[in-house]
Design brief:
Layout (H helix, E strand, L loop, with lengths): L2 H10 L27 E3 L5 E3 L2 H13 L3 H17 L2 H14 L4 H17 L14 H16 L4 H9 L4 H18 L3 H17 L6 E4 L6 H10 L8 H7 L4 E7 L9 E8 L6 H5 L12 E9 L9 H16 L5 E4 L6 H14 L11 H10 L1 H4 L4 H10 L9 H21 L1 E2 L2 E2 L2 H8 L3 E6 L6 H7 L3 E5 L5 H11 L6 H4 L7
Parallel strand pairs: 6-7
Antiparallel strand pairs: 1-2, 3-4, 4-5, 5-6, 8-9, 10-11
Length: 512
């Protein structure tokens, strides 16, 4: 594809690739939830063709059990292509078969453990070492049984994963399979499928080690097929047109992606960076304002978007390694930059606040939590009289936040009155609200476990519909201080400690 083709893409907002089922290196994931393929599909000529579930199942069995290398590639191709042609229900059925029928042989494990325990009981004093037997035969028996137990503890589907990983297009196909598994588990917690997903995740973490990933700086001179991926997969701030894309790759901006040799020409994850004099407080100035200084004058690298391109790699934290690599590279190339920060969304804030408002409304006066301070209630009531006519300030806040017209941002008085309570509650949300000991907000959890600290929350930082819906327009700067990254990350992971500046703690005196 040339730049003209990319321009057409920008107008149509298409997803990348229209893969043929026989080309594994051109796979695109079609989520299992949205699959409308049935056993009777239509081929490229408009003819009806049947997809044989039994044949795909048989090709999967062959790909797992086959020993001959010369025919293994053909079996893997048949399975991969056949799987992609299956309907949603058939994919789910096949994955359940894989999880249950190709799991561990527990009867074999039980028998081996009995042998092991029997051997241990017969050893002198229950302790076995080289001196237990003059010829070391007892110790050798232990080693042999331990080796057999380790082998038996490997599920049969490991062979399929291992073989696909070394097969052309196999790594991307594995990510497609895992995305399908995750979508099934969102609807139903199948224990065997959960075990398969966990096993696959650990394999992918190993195979996607930073040592095998190439850090690539993406520029306007890259092939249009790669730029197409940036347009399609940008998840935080969608690319609106070619001018926007060129600006993000131009002077005062950087874009870096991790590319795996098995998925060439397609970043698994990418990050967008703005070079600035000061840490931006609004996304508008990052996306639309032209840089007001020469790059050599920049003292701050602002990470304003990080996007994963593979749904099947969810939960595999490639972003942690990407951010650290980018910091090292930028620091090396531009020693004058000493501040590394983000301008990040707060995707869970409004949802959390609305849940608090509902809870307060349903509670009696004894247990009702005062979300708003008395002075905030009075100010909000006075400012909203003409707009809502509602007397209860909590209901006023609910109505303003749930209205998709966002009338309140058109009123300077309401914008001013809402700033204090919404900023205070946002600081509480980021600092104090936890789930299983980790930050409730997904983006906060991501950056905090990577070693960042909460630096500043910014009022009216994102006036887009998405920003107003997610967080009432509030965004947050996370700071990556090189000398504190490792310590911050470790303390957060081990104890749930959220590191933040005094400015953040100042919103909640005596609470944090």
């Amino acid at each position: 594809m040339n730049k003209k083709g990319l321009a057409i893409l920008m107008r149509t907002r298409m997803r990348p690739f229209s893969p043929g089922s026989n080309k594994l290196n051109h796979l695109e994931h079609v989520p299992i939830q949205g699959s409308k393929v049935s056993h009777e599909d239509i081929d490229s000529s408009g003819n009806t063709m049947k997809r044989d579930f039994g044949a795909v199942r048989e090709s999967m069995h062959s790909a797992i059990s086959m020993k001959k290398a010369e025919v293994l590639d053909s079996a893997l191709d048949e399975f991969s292509e056949g799987y992609l042609d299956l309907s949603k229900n058939d994919r789910q059925s096949l994955l359940l078969i894989l999880a249950k029928d190709y799991d561990l042989d527990r009867s074999q494990i039980h028998e081996l453990m009995k042998q092991y325990l029997g051997l241990e009981a017969s050893a002198t004093g229950g302790k076995v070492d080289a001196s237990t037997n003059e010829d070391g035969s007892c110790l050798a028996a232990f080693y042999r049984l331990e080796r057999n137990i380790r082998y038996a503890l490997k599920p049969q589907y490991e062979d399929l994963f291992e073989r696909l990983n070394t097969h052309p297009g196999g790594l991307k196909f594995l990510s497609i399979m895992r995305a399908d598994i995750l979508s099934i588990l969102e609807e139903e917690n199948v224990v065997s499928l959960r075990a398969l997903e966990s096993y696959m995740k650990q394999k992918l973490i190993t195979w996607l080690s930073p040592a095998v990933l190439e850090l690539h700086q993406i520029t306007w001179d890259d092939p249009a097929s790669l730029l197409e991926k940036i347009v399609a997969y940008e998840a935080v701030h969608p690319v609106s047109n070619l001018v926007d894309l060129k600006r993000r790759l131009g002077v005062g901006r950087r874009c870096f992606g991790y590319i795996h040799p098995a998925v060439p020409g397609e970043p698994l994850i990418f990050i967008e960076v703005a070079l600035q004099k000061n840490v931006s407080q609004t996304i508008q100035e990052v996306l639309w304002d032209e840089p007001s200084m020469h790059e050599c004058e920049a003292t701050c690298a602002l990470f304003y978007s990080i996007s994963s391109t593979q749904p099947g790699l969810k939960g595999i934290n490639l972003g942690k390694f990407l951010i650290k690599r980018v910091i090292d590279l930028v620091k090396k190339d531009m020693p004058n930059i000493y501040t590394f920060a983000t301008l990040s969304p707060i995707p869970g804030y409004t949802q959390w606040l609305l849940a608090k408002l509902v809870s307060a409304e349903r509670s009696d006066s004894t247990f009702r939590e005062n979300i708003l301070e008395p002075e905030e209630e009075r100010a909000l009531h006075d400012a909203s009289k003409e707009l809502t006519g509602e007397k209860d300030a909590m209901k006023v806040l609910w109505n303003l936040l749930t209205s998709r017209k966002y009338e309140w941002i058109k009123s300077d008085e309401l914008v001013s009155v809402l700033e204090a309570p919404l900023m205070r509650l946002c600081a509480r949300y980021l600092l104090l609200e936890k789930k299983r000991g980790r930050a409730l907000d997904s983006v906060a959890n991501f950056h905090l476990q990577n070693g960042a600290m909460i630096g500043r929350i910014n009022w009216m930082a994102d006036r887009s519909e998405k920003g107003l819906c997610q967080s009432a327009g509030i965004m947050v700067n996370y700071l990556y201080r090189l000398e504190d990254i490792e310590e911050n990350g470790q303390s957060y992971i081990s104890t749930g400690t959220v590191h933040a500046t005094d400015d953040i703690h100042g919103f909640l005196p005596g609470e944090a």
